[in-house]
Design goal:
Shape: elongated
Largest sheet: 7 strands, parallel
CATH class of the largest domain: Alpha Beta
Number of helices: 15
Length: 365
């Protein structure tokens, strides 16, 4: 949005909620619900169509599976008069290892709607290759390195500051801190992390697992920690706004999700110089290069996951080597780089506009 304002465009945003957004000329509160069966989405579709038809946008950029469905259907008529529609797929629900129901439901929808898409942006290589090989009918299929991570905000502490900040937050200099920020749900699979820690708790006496986030399975995970006698070693931090302060004091990022598009939480950890031990999925495959910045493990292999934790704990040299690898790998995912990649795509459609028509442009995001 900042980039569009810098180019002199008028920026409107439609999303659920009333949060104030920077670089926005107008915000529409549209009741888009996650569930495709929620009747509120009919109202959301009608409202989106009214706004699009009324404002005659030159570019519409939509996100999320349901937002992408509603916006592209609502913009069908507008495209006939020159509006360009861009859709970013933040990880197709159909992918290798996904349930067959996901392929039966989401695949035909995405493939059908691709014909109403001028630019389909994917954020990982697997989705890009899938869209190309399955001949999605978008006019352009692009690969951008995610939404970008702010490497000025997320960056390593010096050793002295790391010690200082640890003490402030009540952690010891010898503590071995593992970090994961995610909603507590079936997909994020925090149980793997708790079980892995429990399996090697005697070998890792200083290890502490910090879990940031909320969700329906938090209490279940707390109960599991108690059952496995690691409740004193697992901290449930709840919703946090200071992730950029927590990550740099930690030693290792861990991730246990079953599915990911391109996980921002892992990119932020890497930018802070943390190596990563993570479950195998397309998003983690994209970010983690084994023996360079971390290790990948099958999501049910508690034994191997635990072994990697022990390896990291026992070797400061390995920890430092893989941490440096994270910083090297994350460069192409920086906010600066991804903003450039998006600007190339946007500029293509800006050039298509007839400047004689108007010097006043509108983008709808």
């Amino acid at each position: 949005m900042k980039w569009f304002k810098e180019q002199g465009w008028d920026v409107h945003v439609a999303a659920s909620g009333t949060l104030d957004l920077p670089f926005t000329d107008q915000k529409f509160d549209i009741p888009i619900k996650r569930s495709p069966f929620d009747i509120q989405n009919i109202k959301a579709f009608k409202e989106l169509k009214r706004i699009i038809d009324q404002n005659q946008y030159e570019i519409i950029h939509c996100h999320t599976p349901l937002g992408g469905v509603l916006a592209r259907l609502a913009a069908k008529q507008a495209r006939k008069t020159g509006t360009k529609v861009i859709y970013t797929a933040h990880g197709f629900h159909f992918c290798k290892g996904a349930p067959i129901t996901n392929w039966l439901v989401y695949y035909p929808i995405e493939r059908y709607l691709s014909r109403f898409t001028d630019s389909l942006i994917t954020i990982n290589s697997e989705d890009y290759q899938l869209a190309k090989s399955h001949r999605f009918q978008a006019k352009q299929i692009e690969h951008v390195h995610g939404v970008g991570v702010d490497t000025e905000r997320f960056k390593p502490h010096t050793e002295a500051r790391k010690v200082e900040e640890r003490i402030k937050l009540g952690y010891g200099t010898d503590d071995f801190l593992l970090f994961y920020a995610a909603e507590f749900n079936r997909n994020k699979n925090q149980q793997l992390l708790i079980r892995s820690l429990a399996q090697v708790k005697d070998e890792l006496p200083q290890a502490r697992l910090l879990l940031a986030g909320e969700g329906v399975l938090m209490e279940e995970c707390k109960a599991l920690a108690r059952t496995l006698n690691v409740e004193e070693r697992v901290e449930f931090l709840g919703f946090r706004k200071d992730i950029d302060q927590l990550l740099p004091i930690c030693d290792l990022a861990v991730a246990s999700s079953l599915r990911e598009g391109l996980p921002v939480n892992i990119m932020e950890a890497m930018a802070c110089g943390l190596p990563v031990v993570a479950s195998e999925n397309r998003g983690h495959f994209e970010l983690i290069e084994p023996n360079r910045n971390g290790y990948l493990v099958n999501a049910v292999d508690i034994h191997l996951f635990s072994n990697y934790l022990v390896d990291m704990y026992q070797s400061k040299e390995l920890l430092n080597k893989l941490g440096k690898g994270s910083i090297e790998v994350i460069n192409k995912y920086s906010l600066q780089q991804t903003s450039y990649e998006l600007s190339v795509i946007y500029s293509r459609y800006m050039e298509d506009q007839n400047e004689a028509k108007s010097q006043y442009h509108r983008a709808y995001l």
